[in-house]
UniProtKB/TrEMBL annotation:
This is GRAM domain-containing protein. PANTHER family: WW DOMAIN BINDING PROTEIN 2, ISOFORM E. InterPro entries: WBP2-like. GO terms for cellular component: nucleus. It comes from the Eukaryota.
Length: 191
């Protein structure tokens, strides 16, 4: 049994640590535990309406469905975070002169996931203090390409509409409803 944290994400947490996978979900990458996460609204919002959430130490899981971040020490305000793969755009690794490599992206939050509805997109930054940013980014880009291919095939066969972004409840429905996510594996990707 797990405990659901409906307030700030759709991640079912496993009793022994980690997360409870969705049906057919496979973990493709796990970060070292000192990875940071920062979510914030873009500068278009006035300061009073801005959104910001940060965690200094946690683990990132990349699965064939989503990115999951679990803090090493959760707080009542922040226990977990998840975003569907196809809700992530403009991702890149930045390598500063000093400090750890960062992976930055823009995310489209899922309705009901705990992020205020007025924020149609947020900036997400993960800092990989113990390494792994390039491995994560490479695996993510290959996976996203494979998911896009699966959505395109489903759309051609009349099984799906849209581009695969999930603006609903975060359970992989909507545009991905006609896509067999269990068949999305990295083995099938060209190197």
């Amino acid at each position: 049994k797990g405990r659901a944290n409906r307030k700030s994400s759709w991640v079912m947490l496993a009793e022994q640590g980690g997360y409870t996978p969705l049906p057919g979900e496979q973990t493709l990458y796990v970060s070292p535990p000192r990875t940071t996460l920062a979510l914030q609204s873009s500068n278009r919002h006035p300061p009073a309406q801005s959104y910001s959430q940060q965690c200094k130490s946690g683990v990132v899981y990349l699965t064939n469905r989503r990115i999951i971040y679990l803090p090493v020490s959760s707080t009542p305000d922040f226990q977990s975070f998840a975003v569907p793969i196809l809700n992530i755009k403009d991702s890149r690794v930045t390598a500063p002169w000093f400090g750890a490599n960062k992976w930055e992206s823009v995310i489209l939050p899922v309705s009901g996931g705990g992020i205020p509805a007025q924020h149609a997109e947020l900036e997400m930054t993960m800092e990989f203090k113990e390494g792994g940013a390039f491995d994560f980014a490479t695996t993510f880009e290959r996976l996203k390409e494979r998911l896009k291919q699966a959505v395109d095939v489903a759309r051609e066969n009349g099984l799906a509409t849209g581009d695969g972004t999930d603006l609903g409840g975060g359970e992989g429905g909507g545009a991905l409803a006609g896509v067999n996510l269990n068949s999305v594996h990295l083995d099938e990707l060209p190197a």
